[in-house]
């Protein structure tokens, strides 16, 4: 039985599971459904997925048995973006009725058999849904302590590769594909005095490959009584798919009473391995934060206070031979090169940060749980669009602070530049997915809808925020800027820009890389990610880390009389995006088995977008922290 959620998770609002699978899974707005004996329980088919190709396909892209009328289930934006195509199926299942049925008999052509064979070789899995529960396959994994743990994988394998019938398996022997044409549905239900009927709390699938034999003319009487291969078991000859052939699809249903309550039925899908790894991630991140906090505290309480006392008490003549951050007071607020790009980058970073924070917060509170299919992706897209107001405000305010006058151009750049680059990359990748016939390819209508949201909602909101940002009154700068720029003295190699920038990104990335592994596993290896309580903590630690490392390096830079801190502050913590992309390369070669060039292009295209998003968020946090730090220290020093 799953363990109970620890108390601290409730304090944090982490209704998504944290230190272990929860005993209760709360999903606002979703109510349980009770079934009476004999009620039809519908099975919907979703899609075919493979961790090798990363290209999902429609279930009926393969010649499975079909109902008389194929109906599309209602899908939200997130499901479409995720490549889900949910449709009805011909399975006829009645509550509480254990049965064996013949689904259909298919005469496969050479082309259809080859397509089945290809998908089996590519290790595709079939996904189904019953009462909003995805089909799961049991697995057994032996842990390091020798304990065997029961785990569940989403969907069931389409087939497997095995030795040809009559051939003894051996090393280097040829293998041929076998199709899982018989499904055993193990449906678990729960009954209680508090409600009538029964609630479905488990949907397991046991796939089997059986080469059915039948008596007489099966086409005239397609009933289970005609089959000689009943009951079905693993000892029967498997069903190969090689060349034109006949395949009979069958299924049987087994009902099991379960003590699992409806609120806990998702627990079996949400096991993500050793929970100590997540705790190690938090402790690792906290250690980094404590280290940086100590350094910042030392700078603030000792070094900076000593500097302020010396600068405020020393005579002007004494300062001629001094060195330090006060000597660049006449240049520290000099506008940097490319102020428009800096302002638009910071504005987009603010937009992405608020989008990420609110999305994770809603997921942590249970509103965007895995049970709400496509909810997280839909909310993320909508929040990005709505966060155009803070993006426009912060970009315009910063641009005005940097003496910029072309606020319309700055606003257009904020609204169009980075979203345009991302949309262009997705649009190009979409062509390749269209060419492969994948359901992950966005339909034309969805592309139009996204463009309408972008230009119809996001862009006007950015302009609205920019209007208020440019109208906002700027406070007087703590020091005046000299007309003639001060010459920057020669810097030691370890104080050079590229070295500082690369070193600055290591600690923010180190604070999140363990949790990043689980996130990438959920995306590319078809796992559920649910520990949003942990993710919120990691996000807060990341914000603190970016702030502190940017402040520390900015202080060292100013102490060396280098006043070009604007872009350096943004790039210092933002360089963690570069490490994220480098990590994605390592992950590609160590965790994935992708060999298809199109899939490789899709993987690195999407990971490139993720790296840019991470760069903008972390860079923006570091930049605004450094800006506040610089403003504070120069407000405290006396300048003649």
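Q: What amino acid sequence fits the structure above?
A:
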């Amino acid at each position: 039985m799953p363990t109970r959620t620890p108390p601290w998770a409730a304090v944090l609002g982490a209704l998504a599971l944290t230190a272990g699978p929860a005993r209760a899974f709360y999903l606002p707005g979703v109510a349980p459904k009770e079934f009476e004996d004999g009620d039809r329980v519908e099975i919907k088919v979703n899609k075919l997925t493979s961790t090798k190709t990363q290209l999902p396909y429609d279930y009926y892209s393969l010649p499975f048995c079909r109902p008389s009328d194929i109906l599309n289930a209602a899908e939200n934006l997130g499901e479409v973006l995720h490549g889900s195509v949910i449709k009805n199926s011909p399975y006829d299942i009645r509550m509480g009725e254990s049965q064996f049925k013949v689904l259909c008999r298919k005469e496969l052509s050479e082309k259809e058999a080859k397509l089945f064979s290809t998908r089996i070789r590519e290790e595709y899995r079939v996904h189904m849904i019953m009462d909003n529960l995805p089909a799961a396959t049991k697995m057994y994994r032996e842990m390091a302590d020798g304990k065997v743990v029961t785990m569940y994988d989403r969907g069931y394998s389409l087939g497997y590769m095995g030795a040809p019938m009559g051939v003894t398996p051996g090393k280097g022997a040829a293998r041929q594909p076998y199709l899982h044409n018989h499904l055993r549905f193990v449906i678990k239900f729960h009954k209680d005095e508090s409600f009538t009927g029964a609630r479905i709390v488990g949907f397991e699938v046991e796939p089997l490959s059986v080469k059915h034999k039948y008596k007489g003319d099966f086409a005239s009487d397609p009933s289970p009584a005609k089959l000689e291969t009943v009951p079905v078991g693993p000892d029967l000859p498997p069903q190969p798919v090689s060349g034109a052939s006949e395949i009979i699809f069958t299924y049987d249903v087994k009902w099991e009473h379960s003590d699992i309550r409806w609120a806990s039925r998702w627990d079996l899908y949400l096991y993500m391995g050793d929970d100590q790894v997540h705790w190690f991630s938090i402790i690792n991140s906290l250690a980094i934060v404590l280290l940086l906090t100590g350094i910042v505290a030392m700078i603030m309480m000792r070094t900076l206070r000593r500097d302020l006392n010396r600068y405020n008490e020393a005579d002007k003549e004494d300062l001629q031979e001094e060195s330090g951050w006060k000597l660049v007071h006449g240049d520290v607020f000099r506008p940097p090169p490319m102020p428009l790009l800096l302002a638009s980058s910071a504005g987009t970073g603010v937009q992405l940060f608020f989008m990420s924070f609110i999305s994770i917060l809603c997921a942590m509170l249970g509103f965007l749980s895995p049970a709400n299919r496509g909810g997280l992706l839909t909310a993320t897209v909508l929040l990005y669009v709505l966060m155009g107001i803070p993006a426009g405000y912060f970009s315009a305010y910063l641009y005005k602070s940097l003496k910029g006058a072309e606020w319309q151009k700055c606003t257009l750049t904020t609204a169009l530049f980075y979203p345009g680059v991302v949309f262009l990359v997705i649009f190009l990748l979409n062509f390749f997915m269209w060419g492969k016939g994948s359901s992950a390819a966005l339909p034309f209508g969805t592309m139009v809808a996204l463009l309408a949201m972008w230009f119809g909602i996001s862009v006007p909101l950015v302009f609205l925020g920019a209007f208020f940002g440019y109208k906002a009154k700027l406070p007087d700068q703590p020091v005046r800027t000299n007309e003639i720029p001060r010459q920057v003295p020669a810097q030691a190699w370890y104080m050079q820009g590229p070295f500082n920038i690369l070193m600055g990104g290591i600690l923010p990335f180190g604070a999140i890389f363990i949790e990043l592994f689980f996130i990438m596993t959920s995306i590319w290896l078809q796992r559920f990610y649910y520990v949003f309580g942990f993710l919120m903590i990691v996000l807060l630690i990341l914000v603190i880390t970016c702030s502190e490392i940017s402040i520390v390096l900015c202080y060292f830079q100013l102490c060396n009389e280098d006043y070009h801190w604007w872009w350096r502050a943004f790039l210092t913590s933002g360089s963690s995006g570069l490490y994220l992309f480098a990590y994605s390369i390592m992950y590609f070669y160590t965790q994935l088995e992708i060999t298809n060039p199109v899939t490789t292009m899709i993987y690195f295209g999407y990971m490139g977008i993720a790296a840019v998003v991470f760069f903008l968020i972390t860079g923006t946090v570091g930049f605004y922290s450094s800006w506040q730090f610089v403003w504070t220290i120069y407000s405290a020093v006396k300048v003649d």
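Q: And what stands out in the fold?
A: Residues 597-636 form the longest helix (40 residues).
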